[in-house]
Every structure is written in C-alpha cells, then in structure tokens.
Write a structure and sequence with these properties.
Number of helices of chain A: 9
Shape of chain A: elongated
Strand content of chain B: under 5%
Structural class of chain A: alpha+beta
Largest sheet of chain A: 7 strands, antiparallel
Radius of gyration of chain B: 21 Å
Low-confidence stretches of chain A: 1-13, 512-516
Mean pLDDT of chain A: 87
Helix content of chain A: 25-40%
Largest interface: A-B, 61 and 65 residues
Largest sheet of chain B: none
Number of helices of chain B: 9
Oligomer: heterodimer
Helix content of chain B: 55-70%
Distance between the termini of chain A: 43 Å
Order of helices and strands of chain B: HHHHHHHHH
Mean pLDDT of chain B: 81
Amino acid sequence: MAVELRPSETQPGPTGRPRLGDTLRQAWREFRSMRTALLLLVLLAAASILGSLFPQQSISPQRVTRYFQDHPALAPVLDRLGLFDVFGSAWYMAIYLALLAALVACLFPRARAFARVLRSRPPRGGQLDRYRTRAAFDTAASPRQALEAAAAVLRRRHYRLATHEEELAGEKGFLREAGSLLFHVSLLLLLVGLAYGKGFGYRGQAAIVEGETWANARVGYDAYSPGRFFGSERLAPFQLRLEDFSNAFHDDGTPREFASRLTALDLDGRQTQAQRVAPNRPMTVDGVRVFQSDYGYVPVVRVLGKDGKVLKQEEVLTLRDPASELSTGAVKVTRAQPQVGLELTMFTGLRTAPDCPGGLPFCNDPRLVRPVLVVLPFQGDLQASRAQSVFTLDQSRLRPLGARPLVLGLGQSGKLPNGLEVTFADLKQYSVLTLARDPGVPIVALGAALVLLGLVPSLYVTRRRVWVRATPTPGGSRVELAGLALQGKVAFAGELARLASEVERGTLNPAPHRPR
Amino acid sequence: MSSASLANLSETLAWLAVLSYVVAAVLFGLELAYRVRWVGRAGLAVTIAGLAANVGAAVARALAAGRVPWGNMYEFSVMVGIVTVAAFLVWVARRPAVRPLGVFVLLPAVLAIGLAGIALRVPAGPLVPALNSRWIAVHVAAAITGSSVLCLAAIFSILFLVKERFERRAATPAPPLVAGGARTADRVDVREAVAGYREEEPEPGPSTGGEPPAPPRRVWDRLPSAATLDELAYRTTAFGFPIWTFAIIAGAIWAQAAWGRYWGWDPKETWSFISWTIFAAYLHARATAGWRGRRAAWLSLLGLAALLFNFYAVNTWIVGLHSYAR
C-alpha cells in the first residue's frame, strides 16, 4: 500500500492516544476508498437533479428572470445558494473535484498493486476441499500426465500458469483490472481535453445579412465568450460573406431546412472556401467551426419626406418568433420634424379569414409566400441619444400617429397622416452563425475512445483462480480441481465442471507428441 | 404500399405486439405459479411472435416515414419494446430458468408501448432539421439499447430484492446467500449457491401432462435464487452500461458537430448524466463491503427511476434543446 510507514516513523504517543498522523492517514485511506467514490457519485447525481429542477442562467436566462418575478422572496435566497447556476457553483465544483481527487488517489495504489500481481506467479491453493467450487475424477493416467493435460486445457483458456510440485495453479482475468484502470485514466484524459478546449478556445455568435461581408474580429460578434487563456488578438484572420440564405417548410408548416451559402475570404478579399452551412452541416475555416444557429428577416424600408427627399433608407434587423414566424422591429426616423418612429411586424405569408384556423381574422403562413409589413407609426421624441434596443421603440414620449396601421406588400408604399411616405422596398434575410474554436477535440476524442475500450473488459472479464492437483492411486491418479471466482460466481460452478471434464478427456487421449 | 397505409400497418402491428406480450405474460405467470412447462413454452412462442410483430411495426414505420424509426417518443417506445424483449430472450436462451420471469419483463414492455400508442402517438413524418443527421442513427439507437437493457437489469434487481427478503426470512440462522455477501460465503458448499437455479431447470420426463404437479408453496419460491438474480442484474447492467456510456458520448460528439459544444447541461443531458452516475455508483457498490446485495440493488432501482424520468418527464414537462424529440 502507498502509505505503509515503518513503525519507527510513527512512535506511539506517550498517552497511547492516536496521533494526528495516524488519524490523517486513516482519513486518507478512507478518502480513497471505494465507499467514498460511491458516496460522491450519489452526491453528484443528487446535485445534478437540482440543476435540472431550477432554471439555469447558462441555459435560459429568460426563465431565471421570470422565476425572479414569480417568486420575489424565494429567488434571491436560491440565487445565493447558486441554484440558478448549479453546474458553475462552488459546491458543485467541490463535489466533482473531490470525486476526481479520490479517483486519482485510488488509481496510484491500484496501479501499483496491479503491477505487483502481474509480476507474481499464481499462488498455491492450500487445502482444496475448503473451496466451494470443486471437481474430482480418477484416471488411468499418471499424475504427471494428468497435470500436463490440465495445463494444456487451462492454457487454451488463457490461464496464466504456475507449477508448484504436484499442484498446478492457474489464474486469469487480469484484463478486468487493466480495463478498469484504463477507463478511469481515460476519463481523466477526457476531462482534461474538455477543460483544455474550453480554456484555449472560444465561442461566439454573429448575424450576417445576405450580401454582407463579415470580418472575424471581436467587434463583429453579438455574443462572445472566450476561454480564460484565449486572447482575442488570436482570432483567425478571415472574412465571411453570406451569399444568400434559404429556408423551407413542410406543408404542415414545420421547418424542413434552413441553410446559408457562405464564402470565406482572406483579409485581402480573396476567396478561400465556399460551402452551404446548415444545421448538422458546419464549415471549418482556419480551425474555426461555423455552425448555422438561427435566422431572421431584414425588410428594407424607405421613408420619404413631404418634399420627396429620402429621410431614411434602412435594412431593418427584426426579431423572429420561431412559433409564429412573425418578425418584429423598429425604424427610427430622427430627421423628421417631429421625430417619427415606426413599429414593424412582418408576416411571411399573411392569410385572412376563411384560410385561418379557428375563425381567426388573420394568421401567418410560416413559408415566405406573401410577405407583408404592418407599420404602426408614432410621433414625438424618440430619445435616440439614450441607450435603447434597436428592435423596439421607447414609447414614453411618443404618441400614435393616426388610427390605423399601414399594411404594405413587398414593393408597396403608403402615406402616413403627416405626409411621410413609407415603402417596403425590399426583403432580405440574415443568418445567425455560431463560431467556435475548440483545440481540445483530439484529446477528448482519444479519451472517449479509450474510456469505451477500457470499460468493456472492466465489466465483462472475470477473475478466476483454478488449482489442479493429481495424487497417485493404484489405478493411475486422482485429479482434484478447485476454483475461486471473484466475479460471476454462479456461472463459475458450471465452468469448473466443464474444465474438469475437458481435463478428464485430455488424460484419456494424451497429446500425440508427449514431451519428455 | 403508400406511406399512409404503411403507417396504419405499423400501428396495427404495434397493437398486435402489445396483445401478444399480454398473452405471453399471462402464460409465463401461469408457469411461475403452477410450474407447468408447456405453458411456459407456449408463452415463449407467443413472445417471439409478438417480437416479430414489434419489429414489423418499427420497419413499417421506418418505410412510412422514410427514415430511422426513432425520431420521437412514440417510435422510441416501440423500439424499447423490441430491445427489452429481445434482451430477455437472449437470457432465456442462455439460462432457461429465467423464462418464467417473462411476466416481469413483458408487462413493462406492454406499458411502454401501450402508453405510447395512447398518449404519445404522432403521425409518421420527417425529422426537424436539427435532428436530420447521420448521428441520429448512432446516438438514439445506442440510447434505446442502453436504456432498455438497463431497465431490464433494474427489473432483475427488483426481483432480487424480493427474493432476497424471502430467503432471509426462510433461513434466519444461515448467512444470506447474496453474491459476495461475505467472504466466508466463498467457502460455503457450492450446491447451496446453485441450488436455486438448478431447481428451475426443466426436468426431463413426461411430467408435462395433464395433472398439475404438487401444489406450489409460494410463487416466490419459484424465482431463481437471490444469488442468481443478483448475477443476472449485474451482467445485464454490465452489458447496458457501456452502451449507455457510448450513447452519451455519441450524443456529446453530435452536439459538438451540430452546436459547437459537447455539453450544455440541457435537462436531457443532465438526466442522462444523473442516470449514468447512479449506474456507475451501482457498479462501484458491488465492489464495496457493506453495499453489495441489497443496497446496490436499490441504486439500480434509482437508476431506473432516473431513466424513466429522463424519458417521460424531461420530454414532456421540462423545456430544453431536446424538446423536439417529443
């Protein structure tokens, strides 16, 4: 064992009380025991349940916000306990770090013990009639022939053998412990790969409008989370151009496919790659994976003044509701006097009364069949100098302009009550891409492969020891077999019986080339 | 055949499978209660017929939808039926004594498919884009196989707990014959340990005739010994656990290929991890003094609960990235 110290180093205390060193050693031994690992595993499972019962900040921040609104008294307490970020909380980390530490602590003595077992010879069996699994038969062969036959049978079954005078000892199933050690080491390797990839990689999201070219730089990302050791100056130097975006639906309105046709360019604008990126079809540029994550619509809106001059021409980024495929956005015409704000709702396929389910007056077809822009105008102070969302209007100092919204088909124009003309000039789409770099992938892949490679023998291979003893009798010899199974004990009884009958057959028909 | 008629055929076959499993379960139950061999053999035949119908249901569904038949909860349940029953048949082929336990295996399969047929049925249709990947064939197939086999293992653990309780009551002075229950058990006479399942081996001879054999003492006496059930549970877990591990790893690889990250603690991922952890704990418990036998079996039960929660509760109540798999 790893911590066996010689008695001279641990002199008993004068009072006979256990010394601190002994207590610590005892605690250490307990820590790396199987029982600790077991309890920590159960604890880890219990802690993970909490993470699935409460909304998690990292998965759905909106639901956490809603939880705070619904439970104003309870939520701050839960937040204090880290229940909205269980998997990043200190106590969750404490559990799994303790589990990993216990794992490492028990791997070393186990590996040492295993190495010792591999070097040693299968030991003697002692008194064979003590074992619960036994077999015996009489044969005409001499004791030596009988043991030779037994050795042949056991060797065929991949037993490691040792001869102790009139006794043959065989042992097999070392792959179990080897597999178990490999599994646990590979699990660590896999976790190291995950941590390495997270620390030295990054993830980000970017939205690109059709026809636009986007440069891979920190400012280009709408969301950006670098690993602790990833410097943003190391972002690969490339650009992406969204040639076009397409989405298709099944007849029942469920999405069938959406895809971006992307071209990668170097910083000088030379094309390096071109690919259609869709869900499950990412593209790799300079070691960065580009994934299709979302999309939206970009209506092009033109606003003309009373004098016919262009006050505003804008590609309006809108937010798409995936359930209804309705998109909402806002146009802020700061140059109008007084200022004008337009609230936009875009239908991909406006349908009216008889075609709508449930007697609704109008509804939306998710397919892009009849794009219609509903424009709700406001007048007053946009407060544009204050920080605000680009998708909505701050209505605190605005009042409605006219009683009815403008309903514009693609290419149509309409006049507002104050004489401004609004045109739905064009319609584009934007694509939301996730970009990620993960240098840990090869390590994780290797770890995962080895985990599986180690796991199978660690569960299937069974450790067995078998002893065969032959004693001379007047008619030849009496052969006794005894065995010990560490796993699969019930099946072992049959196994030993089969072994015995094979050995018996072997003694009847000795091998043709009899040695010596 | 048209897609619609194939889908209809699939449903008919699924109900036929359910019906066969019910009949077979009754027959196995009779075999367990009255120890009539031919009833058990008939049950086996009906089970095999039911499995054929079950496989037919999946194949027809695959043809109707033009893809792998495991794209939603209904199809998943039908596949779980196939794997559970097939795994049980493998055990029966290897150990005939296990056969009467069919009652306890077929009834859950009936519940799974029946519930799916009543509450989770959806028309055979194409997959949403996020699922449309070659990985669905690997990840979901492994998840189906792994979780079904682990469920079967947990059923054996439940039976072990029951039988062990009866054995303890029956033989108060003797130490319990839990596999590895104590080191001393190794040195106990082997006949005791194997007696339980030897007894269940069908005895050759003309005893299959009309008159019922000696009245049964208790049904539980007919179960294989606790040691045998414990080993069945362990070996079934040992088969299912690596597959479940592979399913989780394949899922992580798919997540990396589709979203650029392996793991996001999505509720589905979290509960897979929870059930994996519990079954890992079960495997450790079997090597830990004081945890072997009963306590380990309880862990296996907890694992079953986690698997069921992951399938039914997470898919229907909890919102997550896997919601489309409904």
